[in-house]
């Protein structure tokens, strides 16, 4: 394959936000294009005028950009191409591949009922395929409207070599009879062109070499191949990717809750981890590559030979693992850049007013984060004074805890004389880690307590919980603003 001729596209319908399945299709298209040095294009399929919304188009493009799936030409807007679609329908009418069908909705419903009663599969019975000029005149005189149908011969065999599924073979008789390619319209008008027709016309106009899309489109591919033939257009190569399944092994759907890319983003998954994870949904990396990689690394080795036919089960554990890998690998500055907007959204800002404190907090929390949202929950007690949970309260009430805390408080006040709680201190006035450790040791000695009891009680007092990050680092972060002292005083 000449690299220059490789042109693939993603053809999302802007009738909802970017779905994880569409995003995964985008990933495979992008990987294939980048692997072969081809072009990755976008076509916005907005012909469903009622359901298509500009904000969905914006959401889809924004999501693709965020994932790093940049496209190579301005997106094609399908609704702007309606003249080309109509022209193709005219061509099919003129060549006899298509005809007007005047059957009314009531007649079609009756036909389907009869088929159901006879236990036959529902299909159009091609009843208006060969109307005489007089019959057509009579229908028009009745004021009937007509759809345009494309002839599908029952005897036709459609064969293609699918890049994922190998040789595919369909019989014309399995395609439901002559297919509607334009909606109902009056007399000689052509109504709105429909999906299979417009996709073929647009893919050909965009010189698409490979159509890579979900396996739910396989029957459409059979119909589209017939259209390519009738329109005298060269057909692209097809690759049908496996569906994404939920935990029960059924197709992932809206009912599974989190399915839109923006949901994953809001939950705190990084673009890197999601792109990595979506690549693994159906594709196996070559031996030795491991499962953690960036898109460029995957593009270097991507091929459809390693795409499975079986559905790909969505695995939260793996996504979480990948996201943690990404977060743990980020330098504090980069992690902070991801966390800062979430902290700002909570109305939080650094008590010291400078970025050093935020960087130190980020460095402290970073190693335990699975999602960025964890970075909000775990940071909360550093920005907001927490109430004590039950365990923490029991600890503070336990024997020896208060004298231990009083000793720590005294030591802190001595280390930090005269600073009222709530004021920010210059960093030079804060404790250093060694000093803080010594101070805690001293306090334990003064109170005659085990250092462990002092530590546990101090954690309860500072964080309102017995769980949390390194205690000395926590103390160092809460001390300069006077928060550590205030939280101890509160418990005493
Ligand atoms: N608009 C169609 C969809 O979102 C495009 C399918 C295709 O790739 O042809 O399912």
Structure summarized in a few sentences:
The protein has helices at 20-36, 54-67, 82-94, 105-117, 133-141, 195-205, 218-231, 261-267, 271-280, 295-301, 316-328, 332-345, 355-365, 374-377, 380-383, 390-397, 401-415, 433-447, 451-463, 471-478, 483-491, and strands at 7-10, 39-44, 76-77, 98-101, 145-150, 157-162, 166-171, 179-186, 210-214, 237-241, 244-245, 312-313. The chain has 492 residues and is mainly alpha-helical.
Notes on the protein architecture:
- The chain is mainly alpha-helical and 492 residues long.
- The chain folds into 3 domains: 1-71 and 242-329, Rossmann fold; 80-195, Glutamyl-tRNA Synthetase, domain 3 (Alpha-Beta Complex); 390-491, Arc Repressor Mutant, subunit A, CATH 1.10.10.350.
- It has helices at 20-36, 54-67, 82-94, 105-117, 133-141, 195-205, 218-231, 261-267, 271-280, 295-301, 316-328, 332-345, 355-365, 374-377, 380-383, 390-397, 401-415, 433-447, 451-463, 471-478, 483-491; strands at residues 7-10, 39-44, 76-77, 98-101, 145-150, 157-162, 166-171, 179-186, 210-214, 237-241, 244-245, 312-313.
- The strands form 5 sheets. It has a 3-stranded parallel sheet.
- The protein starts with 6 loop residues before the first strand and ends with a helix.
- The structure holds glutamic acid (GLU).
